[in-house]
Automatic annotation (TrEMBL):
Residues 482-519 are annotated as: Disordered. It catalyses: Couples ATP hydrolysis with the unwinding of duplex DNA by translocating in the 3'-5' direction. The gene is dbpA_1. Residues 221-369 form the Helicase C-terminal domain. This is ATP-dependent DNA helicase RecQ. It comes from the Bacteria. One of its GO terms (molecular function) is RNA helicase activity. Belongs to the helicase family. RecQ subfamily. Residues 507-519 have a biased composition (Basic and acidic residues). It comes from Emticicia aquatica. The chain holds residues 1 to 522 of 793 of the full protein.
Length: 522
């Protein structure tokens, strides 16, 4: 139990430093738990107010609190914020020169510094370790703790070394781990790796009641996009695309259509990125068109819509990205354009991975497919993915508001199964569709003599292939941004592009022909 006097101090500091009148949700119990020196695991959605859970204890406990954070941009944001509050907070990373580094270390050793933000890579450096052993520390906060787990959406191998380093500094230091990733698998991974199986867990609901979830088929998506934004004129929004090229293309498209939009991706130089991000935060630009490189740690409360122009690679990522809408609790619209083609594209990028990695990535993708295709309440699906079950529909998603018409597809289903069976149960869905629709541009059909199968061409009048007419053919050569990394030697966070050069020429021919089939004037 925390003494009444400390509790009083905490309340006063909450108001005095942060300007908040009351704690939110479970913040107070969590903070008390940390102040009492207990290991604490906090699982709360983005925007719930996790940062305060370590920032406030750092104000009242003796010594410096260490905050392990994955991105330099994130650290900088928080340090700027704390400094504005008049708090001595610093970061230790490779962007500092020698004299700055010395100043930071002196501030910590003298006990002036309340919060020291540090990247896991810097933590492992020998001289930093020696310095940390000399310092008086209050506790360790592991922010974005899901980076520990391969099942999380931003796996960072260095995160797995944190426990060992803490043991080296002082095994008794209390740890607070924080994440917005709540899948039971990730949670267990984190606990195990940080040796926190016995810690207190605070998990709050992941339901974002003010977010409206909607998925539309990716047909005429550019026109739909422009119309959608025109209907939300002047509102702040984020549009996520898979590749840098698409980001540029959509940003120009919007600009040409009189919408104030700017691009953001890791291919831009650091200055431009910073400038565009600031323009978005300061409302000089309404829309930011971005790859996944954008968003972590961005605290813009009044983002009114998040659009996924392309499908994300996991439900987890989707939840995080849509979570940037309506952080102030007001209107937040989450729209995604979905085409199975996007899933195939994403799958291609897993080719060079190990078998296990590929299986993991595939499982995540398939969950995304199920979410996009099913006609049941989106929120119920999302929440059950995070281990929260409800027997009621939400009434505030596209499937609840406009229930999908139920159609009988018995014949189609039987035909599909027959095709799978007759082709020997070893071809992907596209190939099966090509058999059923007698797609002559798929050269594999002839080479495997699938044109001789009984089902060949039997589905010609049954299936509609939804292809985005706006799409172009060069997609395979694009640099798709799938992983964010933050090299300690880099000034800014960088993104490792996973190049895809192995697309089958057959696919291309087939794609072009489909497109020609579908050509309409647009
Ligand atoms: P998270 O890290 O969980 O995504 P943040 O710590 O960035 O969330 O907090 C989200 C927003 O909520 C911030 O703007 C923060 O200032 C605000 N906030 C946090 N705690 C409180 C509180 N007790 N009262 C009011 N606003 C709060
Ligand atoms: Zn619903």
């Amino acid at each position: 139990m925390v003494e009444a006097a400390i509790q009083q101090t905490l309340k006063e500091k909450l108001k005095e430093i942060f300007g908040f009148d009351a704690f939110r949700g479970e913040q107070e119990v969590i903070i008390n738990n940390i102040v009492s020196g207990n290991n604490t695991f906090v699982i709360m959605p983005t925007g719930a107010g996790k940062s305060l859970c370590y920032q406030l204890p750092a104000m009242v406990l003796e010594g410096t609190a260490i905050v392990i954070s994955p991105l330099i941009a994130l650290m900088k944001n928080q340090v700027d914020q704390m400094t504005a509050f008049g708090i001595n907070a610093q970061f230790l990373n490779s962007t500092l020169n020698k004299s700055e580094m010395t100043r930071v270390k002196n501030d910590v050793l003298s006990g002036e510094c309340r919060l020291l933000y540090i990247a896991p890579e810097s933590l492992t450096k020998e001289d930093n370790l020696i310095f940390l052993k000399k310092a008086k520390l209050s506790f360790i906060a592991v922010d974005e703790a899901h980076c520990i787990s391969e099942w999380g959406h931003d796996f960072r191998p260095e995160y797995r070394r944190i426990r060992g380093i803490i043991d080296d500094i002082d095994p008794k230091l209390p740890i607070i781990a924080l994440t917005a990733t709540a899948t039971p698998k990730v949670q267990q991974d984190i606990q195990k790796n940080l040796n926190m199986e016995e810690s207190y867990i605070f998990k709050s609901s992941f339901n974002r009641k003010n977010l409206y979830y909607e998925i539309r088929p990716k047909i005429d998506s550019k026109k739909q996009l422009i119309r959608y934004i025109a209907n939300n004129k002047g509102k702040s929004g984020i549009i996520y695309c898979l590749s840098r090229k698409k980001v540029e293309e959509i940003a120009s498209l919007l600009t040409v259509n009189g919408i104030k939009a700017l691009p953001y991706h890791a291919g831009l130089d650091a200055d431009t990125r910073m400038k565009n991000q600031d323009a978005f935060l300061n409302e000089e630009s309404d829309v930011i068109v971005a790859t996944i490189a954008f968003g972590m740690g961005i605290d813009k409360p009044d983002v009114r819509f998040v659009i996924h122009y392309d499908a994300p690679k996991s439900l987890e990522g989707y939840y995080q990205e849509t979570g940037r809408a309506g952080r102030d609790g007001l209107e937040g619209n989450c729209l995604m354009f979905y085409a199975y083609d996007d899933i195939l594209k994403l799958e291609k990028f897993n080719k060079d991975k190990t078998v296990t990695e590929r299986d993991n990535a595939r499982a995540l993708l398939m969950e995304m497919v199920a979410y996009s295709n099913l006609g049941v309440c989106r929120r119920r699906q999302l929440l059950s993915y995070f281990g929260e079950y409800s027997d009621k529909d939400c009434g505030f998603c596209d499937n609840c508001i406009k229930p999908t018409k139920k159609i009988k597809i018995e014949d189609e289903a039987v035909l599909g199964l027959k095709a799978i069976f007759q082709a020997g149960e070893r071809f992907d869905i596209q190939h099966i569709a090509d058999i059923l629709t007698a797609n002559t541009s798929n050269a594999y059909i002839r080479s495997h003599e699938h044109d001789k199968l009984e089902v060949y061409g039997k589905g010609k009048n049954m299936f509609v292939i939804n292809n985005d007419e706006d799409d172009d053919d060069e997609e395979d050569e694009e640099e798709i941004e799938l992983e964010i990394s933050d090299d300690d030697d880099d000034e800014e966070e960088t993104v490792k592009p996973v190049a895809a050069k192995s697309a089958k020429p057959v696919k291309k021919a087939e794609k072009t022909s489909k497109k020609n089939d579908n050509k309409k004037t647009s």
